Amino acid sequence: MGRTGERSLEATVALAEAFQALGVQAERSGSPSDHPPDLIIGNPAGPVVELAGHVLVAERLSPAARDVLNTKGWAWLDLSGHLRLVRWPVVIDADVPTREPAVGRRRPVLATDVGLDVACALLAHPLDRQSVRRVVGITARSISSVQRTLTALDDAGLRDRQGLPVTPDLFWEAAGHWRPQRMPLRRLPKTTDEPQALLEMRVDGGLPAAGLAGWAIGGDVAARVWGADMVATLQYPVDFYVPSENALRAAVSLYEEAPFHDRAAAVALPPARWACRQRVPANSGSGTQGSRWPLVHPLFVALDLAQDPARGREILATWEPEGSGVAWRD
Pick from 46, 11, 4, 55: which is nearest to 25 by CA? Predict the structure, then answer.
C-alpha cells in the first residue's frame, strides 16, 4: 500500500486497527527497499500476499464519494465505521469500529447538534441562499454558533460559494447522523387526549403557528401524505416526533411501551430539534390516520426514508414533494 502524505502514520495506524478489528493480521512494513509499503496485511485465505495500490483514509465519506471510489477501484477506510478493500484474493467490505478524530482535531461538523440543525436548515431550502439570521430563525441557535457552523461547512466543501448546500452530498452526510431512537407505543395517541399541555399535542386546528412546538408525524405515513409512491394504510403505525424529553416520557407512560412489531405508534425526539417547531399542516383528505396531525418538513421525512438503504432510496429516486426543493439527488 502506498504512502498517503503528511498524515501517513496516523492513517496507517487507523487502517491497521480496522484490519485487526476484523481479525486480519496487519503490521507496519520493515522493508529496507526505497519505496516500502506502509502496511502489510495477512491473507485470510492463505499466505501473506503483496497488495499494490492506495487506500484512501477519511474521517467521513459521503455515499456519493464511496460510489466514485468503488467505481474507480480504490480501497477506502471511512473512520466513521466502514472498510472496503477489493484486491484479489482479499475481499473486505465490512463495518468496523468508529475511530474518533485525533486529539486537537475538530469533530466532523455534522456530528454536533448545532451542525445537524444548521445543515438541515440549508437542506430544507436547497435553492435559496440562507442568511445567518434566517438560519438562526429556523434553528433557534445562537448567531455565533451558526456562523461557526456555516464556516465549517464551507471548509468541508458542503456549501458552495453562493452559500447554497452542496447536494446531494450534504443530504447524505446528514442522513448518516439521522438516528432517531423510536419508542414503540401500544396505543395510538389522539389529539383530544389529556393532558395536552404535558404532551404538547398542539395542533391548533391543523394550522400550527410558526415556532409553536408540538407533536408531528414523520416516517412512512408522512411520506404517503406528502405524495411519495408508497403504501401506508389506515392501519399503518404512525411515527411521531415530539418536541421534548417530557413529552417523550409522558407518551410512554400514558400509551404504554410495546414490542416494536406490535406497535400502534412510535415516538422519538427528532435529531434536529427544530423539526417540531417548523411543522406543516397535513392534508385532511389524505385518508391516513395521521391526517389531523401536523407533519414534519419533507426534508425530515426524506431523512427517515434514507435510513432504509434499499426501499427508501428507491422512493427518494422519484419523490418530489409539492412546494419543497429536493436535496437528496442531483
Answer: 46
Reported for 192-200, long-range contacts at CB under 8 A and 24+ positions apart, including other chains, are 193/254, 198/246, 198/247, 198/250, 199/242, 199/247, 199/250, 199/251, 199/254, 200/242, 200/243, 200/244, 200/246, 200/247
Question: Domains, the chain, ranges and CATH?
Answer: 8-95 (no CATH), 109-176 (1.10.10), 183-316 (no CATH)
Q: Is the peptide bond before 259 cis (omega within 30 degrees of 0)?
A: no
Express each pLDDT in 250-274 by its tens digit.
999 999 999 999 999 999 999 999 9
| 142: alpha, beta or left? (left if phi > 0; alpha if psi -120 to 50) | beta
61-70, 102-111, 156-165: range with lowest mean pLDDT: 102-111
pLDDT in tens, 273-299: 999 998 888 764 444 444 578 899 999
Taken in order 84, 87, 92, 96, the sign of the CA dihedral is negative
CB 197: neighbour CB atoms within 10 A?
Answer: 8
C-alpha–C-alpha distance, residues 4 and 9, integer Å: 8
Q: Which three cell numbers stand for residue 201?
A: 399535542
- Read off the pTM: 0.69
295-321 pLDDT per residue, tens: 999 999 999 999 988 889 899 999 999
Residue with grid cell 478493500, as numbered in its chain: 85
DSSP sequence for 150-175: HHHHHHTT-B-TTS-B-TTHHHHHHH
CA diameter of the chain:
77
Cα separation, 110 vs 204, whole angstroms: 33
